[in-house]
């Protein structure tokens, strides 16, 4: 019917605010518009056309068309030339148009003299942004965000000479975020009069020290977030009279955040400010927190810097009556958390996490009980707040997220007080000195069904003795962490199905749970990503099925009493990245079939009863992503096949030149590694994705050390100790430039220590003791730091640091005859000699280099100073 209205001037079928979009099927787009000769405006935003871009060729028939808006219509293919006949407004955002913007010779720019708005954001356009766009005399809005352009943002000389952009600009809004631009920040952007949005590119250089502020008197928004800008934030930015939002996050500024005196004297910022939103997170700022920030009226975001000092207790709260967000997390702020923060009438987000706040937390009870605050989000985690838990915080009825983890709070908290907060969806109380009451010992009479519907509950190390009863009704749980508590007995049947349609992260580690692994695997199949049951007393075997659609990424079962064999049912979990079953009673031969899991990065079989040969079934792509391989303390025998090691493709990629430190699980689930080093157990609670490790120690492996290990150039730790390896130390190990620890002790190795190993400048631990090595110990680089213990039990070695010198007339001792043995040494379960006896992956979704640690078990204090010195040296090199 629409196609039969040739005089129709405007057609708007846009879908706004609907979840179910209208679809255009029969008749198609061409049939509808081909007869609309009088059409001047066409708006079909979010109407699902799903058509090739050639469909738009029919627009050439609409000679009167001035405005075209086809945002989110699922068009795909090359950007059609016909759109450049539209004279006033062009919006084709959020489609899949490809290709380049046309050059000046490809279109008639004179037809675009009246064009006021062009929006091609959210497509797949490539190449450069053409200079002629900035010469259009009437263009007010240009939006090209989220495309795949490249190169610098420049204007050609011929356009610059004739363009008003360099002097007076009609262009009011320029938005080019996430466009892959690089190079210096263009100076001509300061002629844009209202909105400048260039976030998430690669612009470099400094902000200009001076600009013509008169040209920026109407500027309301400046967003340069996510670039590579350096030096200082210029004071003149805070003197712009109309500026309302300023985003400079994630750049490389430095120094203090100060305002020069001349700007201060004339700036309204010090008294009444037009600036409503200031966001400067992750900018490397340091020094005292500026007092003038309290004149910002709506959003103050200064997280992840190094600001110091206390939050003033003498703030004029009346100026903050419109403040909605305050984020000062990740700084060095100290003192007490002022109580006035909880009385700001419109504040809905308060984030002071990861600072050095101390003292008691006082939530004004009359404010909380009278419901005079709109606080929805409170995060005070990672501080040193002490004293009794503020029960009045449960009176904040609007609260949706409460995080008080990792403080020094004490006292008894009745979990059922949270039932007063009907809107609460996330509760984090871990790592305090709290004791949480659950249903059986609660002092509050509460209807379980009336408790809020939680999505996240993290109460690790809270002295909980039983599963909270209100979990019975929690059907929307995504994250449940009750680790490091005192929960005894079986997992209740109702707990096994809690959140069965939503649960993604389940951590019940370090409790006293018994029973078997009879979770409802088939019900959890679609969404469970992390299952951490380590350090309990679980027994039995793995389930025979994990469901057809298993989504597990991390399975941590270490430190239990599980037995039987690893079953091929694990192959249903094609996204599995971490499998940790150490310290159990699993048996059987090496589960080579695990190598067909395409995402497997961490495999830890330490301290079980596995036996037989190590290797694969000649698969070419097995274990291709593996980066942590630990089969130590088992009874594996035979050789370590070269063909097997060649499968470790991920270990063959050097990480030496990577500049960014990457953490997998950064956004949610923390990773950990446990090292048994010289009699100490250390848990490294945050690790990088750069590390690769192999630990096959304490087995019965024999034969020569494969030369191919030298190809695994990203190895950081290599432990072959306590086996029956024979032959010489392969010089190819010198190719492991990133190697930090090498343990070849307690084998039957012969010959000399290769001089090539002195090139390993990252090597911090070296042990070849209890072998049959001869000749002089190499000198230079790291080898000048190793002590006697690294070489004991090799009667033929000489030279520093041993007392036995290498005299000119002294013939080196010949090694005893080499005997190939199947090996009948008993399995060693404890610590031994001076070796690093293993790397233990705690639980998590990635792998990498240590960023923090703490000692779990200490045996011999004399080594503590030496260990601290090594770790300090390693830290200095890394940072």
TrEMBL record:
Bilayer-crossing regions: 832-856
Bilayer topology: Single-pass type I membrane protein
GO cellular component: plasma membrane
Keyword Isomerase set for record: no
Source organism, top-level taxon: Eukaryota
Gene3D superfamilies, alphabetized: Ribonuclease Inhibitor (3.80.10.10)
Subcellular location: Cell membrane
Pfam families reported for this sequence: LRR_1, LRR_2, LRR_4, LRR_8
Keywords carried by this UniProt record: Cell membrane, Glycoprotein, Leucine-rich repeat, Membrane, Receptor, Repeat, Signal, Transmembrane, Transmembrane helix
Keyword Signal included in the entry's annotation: yes
Family that this chain belongs to: Belongs to the RLP family.
Protein name according to UniProt: Receptor-like protein 12
Organism: Nepenthes gracilis (Slender pitcher plant)
């Amino acid at each position: 019917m629409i196609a039969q209205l040739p005089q129709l001037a405007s057609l708007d079928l846009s879908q706004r605010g609907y979840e179910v979009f209208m679809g255009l099927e029969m008749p198609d787009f061409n049939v509808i518009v081909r007869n609309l000769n009088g059409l001047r405006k066409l708006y079909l935003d979010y109407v699902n056309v799903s058509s090739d871009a050639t469909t738009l060729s029919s627009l050439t028939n609409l000679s009167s068309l001035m405005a075209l808006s086809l945002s989110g219509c699922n068009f795909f293919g090359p950007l059609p030339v016909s759109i450049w006949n539209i004279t006033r407004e062009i919006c084709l955002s959020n489609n899949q148009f490809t290709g380049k913007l046309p050059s000046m010779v490809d279109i008639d720019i004179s037809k675009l003299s009246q064009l006021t708005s062009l929006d091609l954001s959210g497509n797949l356009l490539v190449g450069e942004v053409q200079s002629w766009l900035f010469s259009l005399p009437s263009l007010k809005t240009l939006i090209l965000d989220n495309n795949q352009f490249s190169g610098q943002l420049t204007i050609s000389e011929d356009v610059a000479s004739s363009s008003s952009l360099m002097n007076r600009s009609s262009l009011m809004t320029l938005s080019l975020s996430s466009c892959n631009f690089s190079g210096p920040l263009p100076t001509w952007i300061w002629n844009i009069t209202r909105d400048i949005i260039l976030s998430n590119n690669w612009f470099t250089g400094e902000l200009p020290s001076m600009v013509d502020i008169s040209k920026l008197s109407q500027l309301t928004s400046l967003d340069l977030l996510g670039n590579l800008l350096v030096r200082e934030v210029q004071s003149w930015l805070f003197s712009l009279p109309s500026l309302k939002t300023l985003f400079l996050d994630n750049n490389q500024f430095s120094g203090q955040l100060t305002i020069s005196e001349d700007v201060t004297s004339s700036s309204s910022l010090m008294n009444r400010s037009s600036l409503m939103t200031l966001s400067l997170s992750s900018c490397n700022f340091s020094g005292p927190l500026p007092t003038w920030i309290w004149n910002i009226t709506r959003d103050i975001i200064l997280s992840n810097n190094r600001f110091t000092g206390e939050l003033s207790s003498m703030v004029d709260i009346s100026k903050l009556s419109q403040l909605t967000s305050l984020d000062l997390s990740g700084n060095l702020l100290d003192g007490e958390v002022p109580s006035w923060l909880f009385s700001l009438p419109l504040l809905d987000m308060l984030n002071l996490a990861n600072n050095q706040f101390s003292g008691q937390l006082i939530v004004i009870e009359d404010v909380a009980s009278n419901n005079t605050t709109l606080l929805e989000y409170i995060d005070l985690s990672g501080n040193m707040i002490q004293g009794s838990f503020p029960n009045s915080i449960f009176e904040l009825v609007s609260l949706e997220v409460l995080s008080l983890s990792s403080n020094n709070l004490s006292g008894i908290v009745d979990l059922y007080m949270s039932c007063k907060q009907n809107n609460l969806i996330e509760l984090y109380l871990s790592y305090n000195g709290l004791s949480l009451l659950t249903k059986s010992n609660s002092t509050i009479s509460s209807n379980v069904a009336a408790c809020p519907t939680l999505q996240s509950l993290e109460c690790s190390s809270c002295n909980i003795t039983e599963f909270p009863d209100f979990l019975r009704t929690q059907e929307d749980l995504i994250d449940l962490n009750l680790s490091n508590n005192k929960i005894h007995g079986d997992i209740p049947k109702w707990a096994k199905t809690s959140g069965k349609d939503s649960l993604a992260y389940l951590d019940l580690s370090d409790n006293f749970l018994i029973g078997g692994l009879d979770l409802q695997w088939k019900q959890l199949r679609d969404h469970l990503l992390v299952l951490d049951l380590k350090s309990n007393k679980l027994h039995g075997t793995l389930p025979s099925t994990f469901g057809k659609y298993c989504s597990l990424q991390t399975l941590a079962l270490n430190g239990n009493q599980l037995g039987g064999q690893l079953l091929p049912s694990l192959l249903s979990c094609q996204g599995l990245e971490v499998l940790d079953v150490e310290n159990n009673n699993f048996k059987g031969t090496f589960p080579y079939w695990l190598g067909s899991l395409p995402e497997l990065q961490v495999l830890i079989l330490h301290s079980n009863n596995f036996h037989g040969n190590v290797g694969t079934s000649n698969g070419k792509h097995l274990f291709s992503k593996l980066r942590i391989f630990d089969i130590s303390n088992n009874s594996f025998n035979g050789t370590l096949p070269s063909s097997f090691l060649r499968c470790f493709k991920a270990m063959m990629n050097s990480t030496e030149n990577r500049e960014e430190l990457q953490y997998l699980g950064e956004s949610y689930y923390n990773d950990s590694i446990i090292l048994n080093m010289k009699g100490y157990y250390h848990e490294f609670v945050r690790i990088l994705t750069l590390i690769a490790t192999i630990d096959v120690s304490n087995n019965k492996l024999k034969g020569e050390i494969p030369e191919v290990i030298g190809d695994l150039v990203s190895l950081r730790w290599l432990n072959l100790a306590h086996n029956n390896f024979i032959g010489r130390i392969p010089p190819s190990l010198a190719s492991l430039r990133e190697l930090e620890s090498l343990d070849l002790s307690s084998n039957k190795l012969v010959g000399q220590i290769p001089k090539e190993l002195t090139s390993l400048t990252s090597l911090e631990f070296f042990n070849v003791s209890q072998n049959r090595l001869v000749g002089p110990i190499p000198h230079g680089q790291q080898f000048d730091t190793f002590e006697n213990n690294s070489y004991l039990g090799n009667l033929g070695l000489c030279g520093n640091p041993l007392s036995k010198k290498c005299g000119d007339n002294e013939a080196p001792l010949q090694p005893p005859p080499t005997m190939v043995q199947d090996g009948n040494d008993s399995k060693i379960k404890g610590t031994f000699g001076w070796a690093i006896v293993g790397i233990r992956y705690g639980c998590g979704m990635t792998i990498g280099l240590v960023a923090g640690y703490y000692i779990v078990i200490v045996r011999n204090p004399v080594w503590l100073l030496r260990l601290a010195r090594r770790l300090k040296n390693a830290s200095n090199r890394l940072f």
